[in-house]
Each structure stands twice: as C-alpha cells, then as structure tokens.
Design goal:
single chain; about 325 residues; alpha+beta; 17 strands; about 15% helix; globular
Length: about 325
C-alpha cells in the first residue's frame, strides 16, 4: 500500500512539471508572435509610404594618402581631400620690423645746456657752459653786439673769459639745433675801462693793432695778436691787453678781438693808435669780408662801424691792407 502511494506521488509531480512547462512555452510563443506581427505592420506601413533609407557606415579616410576614397560620397570626398601642393609655414625668430610702432627716444634728464656767468677782474666775465648732450660741437656766444663761436669739449663743457660790454651783462649760448642757455652778471667796474672790439666771420683773419703812447710796430707798447699780453698788464694802469675770441673753421665762423685799457685808473696821458690790418692769404684772397668795430669809452658805447671790403685777388697773397676810418684812436687823460 505504501509503495502504491509513492508511485502515485511521482506521477502527480511529473504531471505538474509538464503542465507548468507547457504554460511557459505557450506564453513565450504568444509574445514572439506579437513582436513579429508588430514588425510586419511597421514594414507594411513603410512600404505604403516609400522606402526608409537606413544609415550607412562611412569609412574614415586615411590622412596619409592624397587620394579620396572612391566609395565615399562626392561631398565627403571634397571635404576630406588634401591640397595637391605642400604648404610650408615659416616661423621667424626675429620680430617683424615693419609691423611694430617706432619707439621715440626719450631725452636724457638733465641734458639741457646750462650757462653760468661770474664777474672777474678787469670787467671780465667768466663763463662756464655745461652741455653734456653737445660734446665736440660749436656753440655761438652772444653778448650785446658781440658774437663768436666757441668749441665744446668732448665732456660737453666750455670755459671762457669774455670782456663785458655793459654793466648788466647778459650772455646767450646757442647750438645749431636750437638748444641754448642764458646767464647774466653785474659788472660795476666797467666804467673804469676803454675797449675796442673788432669782429668778423670766415677765414679773413684781420688783425687789431694798438700802439700805446707813440710806440712803433714791434716795440713794447705794440699790442696785437702776436703780442697780446694778459690781464696782469693792467697793474699800474699804464698798459692794456688784447683778448682773441672765437674758433675758425668755415666761412660762417664768428671771431673777435678786443683790446682793453684801464683808462679810469691810468697815470699816463696821451693817445693810443688803433688800426685794423688784414693780410692777404690763400684763404681770404678774392673774397668779400665784412667787419664790425665797436668802441667803448668809460663803459659807454662811443662808436660803431660796419665795413664790407673786397680782398685783392690771389696774386696779392702776402700783402697787407690797412683799413682806415673803421676804428677811432683812444685818448687817455691822466687821472
């Protein structure tokens, strides 16, 4: 009996298992049929509206070839084709000169000319010019009717001694580019002196001669370029001295010679013969020369003359011209 029950149980379990498997299979078959039916309906619907293009895989061109792939569409081949000629790009190390703005030079600070004027003995003025931006240049010095060129050193400076022509002496220094400076000094001793000024431009080289109290050429009282004396000659009040100013170097170079006598303190009396002479040289022969003379008596302007002369031709080289009526003699009275 017990065996019969066991057999019955085995058959019942087998039947339940088979029934369950059949149900599962039926459900799966029904789902696949529904999917197939949906796909077929979509295909049928697509057939009614025309073909539906599916995307195609596009092969990416290899960049190492210059030929476009024949299987690619024309627009793709055009976009991916490489240039037929190589394009070289050069990178320069230097900056492009023409593309950058020009840099303006900034002027050095403290570079402008500076002029100082200090009173000195014998109504002279000591000038000191500081011009670091103008080394080895020429500068024009002007004072009243006096004008002459001076040389600036390589360090950009110049020191000059200039006879004053007015009690309030104003001096101007001007360079070729327009740079300049002005200075002044008070010269109270000027009325004690008589002066004769001769100035010119160029290479003419006229000479100012002063023959004191009847002296002949070459004697002690003959004062000129070759025997100028210095300020120490004024000691005692019986002699004068000559000062040459200016630097030669071209037809426009301004030069001057100035004779000074201490008339206000002189113990002598008489006349000082003043003359201007010009030697005919290779530099000035057959040239026109313009001279200016100025006389000061006791610090006041007493005479001023200008003269233009035509120098002899070059066959007269070595001869001398004595220019009359250009300067006046000095009359010295005993004090």
């Amino acid at each position: 009996m017990q065996n019969l029950k066991n057999v019955y149980r085995r058959y019942a379990f087998a039947f339940a298992t088979a029934s369950t498997a059949a149900c599962i299979g039926f459900v799966m078959q029904t789902s696949e049929a529904a999917v197939v039916s949906s796909d077929q309906e979509g295909i049928a619907s697509a057939d009614l509206n025309g073909p539906v293009p599916l995307p195609k895989d596009v092969e990416v061109p290899h960049l190492s070839t210059r030929q476009s792939l024949p299987s690619m569409p024309a627009d793709v081949r055009h976009a991916t084709s490489l240039p037929h000629q190589q394009v070289l790009v050069a990178v320069a190390d230097d900056l492009p000169v023409g593309l950058l703005p020009n840099e303006e030079q900034i002027p050095a600070l403290g570079c402008g000319p500076e002029l100082r004027a200090e009173p000195s003995a014998a109504a002279l003025v000591s000038l000191q010019l500081i011009a670091p931006c103008h080394p080895n240049e020429r500068v024009l010095i002007e004072h009243e009717d006096l004008a002459f060129h001076a040389e600036v050193s390589g360090e950009g400076s110049a020191e000059l001694i200039v006879p004053a022509l007015s009690e309030t002496a104003v001096f101007a220094a001007t360079f070729a580019n327009g740079d300049g400076a002005v200075a002044s000094a008070r010269i109270d001793a000027l009325p004690l002196y008589d002066r004769v000024v001769m100035q010119w431009r160029g290479e003419a080289g006229p000479e100012l001669h002063a023959r004191e109290f009847g002296a002949f050429y070459g004697e002690t009282g003959h004062v000129w370029r070759e025997a100028p004396r210095n300020v120490s000659a004024l000691v005692g009040g019986n002699a004068g001295f000559l000062l040459s100013l200016g630097a030669a170097g071209g037809p426009q170079s301004a030069q001057a010679e100035i004779y000074t006598f201490p008339s206000g303190i002189s113990s002598s009396q008489g006349e000082i013969q003043i003359s201007i002479e010009a030697a005919v040289t290779e530099a000035n022969c057959d040239q026109e020369v313009r001279l200016t003379s100025l006389g000061l008596t006791r610090g006041e302007v007493s005479a001023r003359h200008e003269l233009e002369i035509q120098m002899p031709d070059c066959t007269a080289v070595g001869e001398f011209l004595v220019l009359k009526n250009l300067v006046q003699n000095l009359t010295i009275a005993k004090n």
